[in-house]
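Hi support team,

I submitted a single chain yesterday and got back a structure, but I'm not sure I'm reading the token output correctly. Could someone confirm the output below corresponds to the sequence I sent? I've pasted both exactly as they appear in my results page.

Thanks,
R.
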Amino acid sequence: MILDKEWRILTIGDGDLSFSASLQKHFSPRALTASVYDPLSIMTRKYNDTFYQYLKNEKIQTLFDFNVCDKKTWGDLKQHSFDVVIFQFPLVPAFQNFDEYKAHAKNSNINVLNRRLLRQFLLNSFKYFLDEKGQQLCFITSKDVKPYRQWNIESALHMHTNIHYLGSIAFDINKFPGYKIRNVDRDKHVRDTRGETYMWSLQKKHTLSSQLHKLPYHGENFCAICRAGPFSTENDKQVHQASKKHLQMLDFEQAWLKEINKN
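Hi R., thanks for writing in. Yes, this is the structure output for that exact sequence:
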């Protein structure tokens, strides 16, 4: 992850606030605001309030019960005042039962629900949170394993918008002492498998661009949605296109196109 001490940073959905606390302690950015999806009482019950108390002592604004998709929950957050908005390892919370799932999904699957969350994060960040005279950056850090890689993060989220995908960089958790990647719904932290930080901006060419990995698996001899290739022969390519993995990804992409075209 690329950070600058002069940036004003907003963190989204920081489960136990350990990421925000590590940012403040080890990077001391110009300004930091942290947000948590859960109310304070639930966060404390799931984890504890250790990192919240640290941020409170540091006089860091911390917002609870904050849903990045719902403007009514943003409270007294000052809009258009950040250089970068960061969403670490996002994932739609588990549903308590099938009725709750149906109420949220409305003919969508979990893959679409997660893409919808991340797309709304990007849209709202650029519309409401980021300073148009600032760095204009959005970061999403995600795991490079299923089901996360099935979201087609590099290409799908910003479709039909004026937002540009800049590239990605490996996320090194060792640079954030004390940070625990929390499970969405349990008092556990997730195994530290490889993560990647993906970056977007309204600027097509950003000063960070030269430091980032560009789109992988693109070109006639690759399959971008499956992150597969290069294929050594045309037959190899056809075999891949008939595979269960590819057909599943095609279903995900078709469902996603249907989702964004209806909005």
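A quick pointer for reading it: Residues 6 and 30 are 5 Å apart (CA to CA). Let us know if anything else looks off.

Best,
Support desk
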